User: What shape does this take?
Amino acid sequence: MADPFVKSMSEKGEEIRALFLEHIKNAVIKVPVKVMLGDGTVSDQESFDPGKARQFYDYILRRLPDWAHDGISVTTDQDLRRSFIKFEVKENNYVLSAHMSLQYHALLFYKLDHKVIDIQKELSEISNKIKELQQSMAPQSDKIIEEKMRQKGYENMDQQKLFEVLFEHDDLTQELAKHLQSNQEKINKLIERQNFLFKELDHMLLEVYHTTPVMIDEMKMIAAEEGCLCVFNLEHLKNNSREGNLDPARMTAMVKDNLSKRMDEIKSALKI
Assistant: This one.
């Protein structure tokens, strides 16, 4: 048979979770938004405002002034986002803590702007020009060498002889270097323009947020599932360390009553 105190705390926890879930459902209401795909196609998406969840967290913390907390936290792991609060209170040698969290995904699209297509077109042209310049550098160098060799009376020589001639004729080597430098300067300017355009595209990115307003457990949250989490933990302080294995029979009636009231504080904070 479950201990009356444990049963009462569990029931209060379920009531708080139900209230928390209702708030989250209101915070993640989706609205339609038009976005652009990488190929310029217009797409209809739905998104919610994560800021509303953070406003809700702030509301909770302000209504629990006696509880210790580190404010609102947000984590990012590629497209996975998590915003959460953790708060706790000490009663005698016991610490009651709460963790409330929302996990969602952020998908990247482009803003609905024709400039995106223009930039992508220019980027494609620049990429082709760079490739052409790089591919032409070796054949053009060979042509310069061939022409100069013919003018100087050298034709059809092997690699060793060619190396010796190039070593002896600085003018030919300098002309080759000048040709290569000219092409490289053109490539560098194209790369500079390319980097600028990539930054322009970055500024035109739009994040669309998606989640499912359902309650999940810690294992599902670790597995990157969408949803919200609301868990409570009661620990015993002993020798500056926390122990999770509790014996309710060793807790005083006053401590139990105070901890129960603390759960009521959270429930009240969630009621509007």
About this structure: The chain has two domains: 4-112+206-270, 128-203. The mean pLDDT is 85.
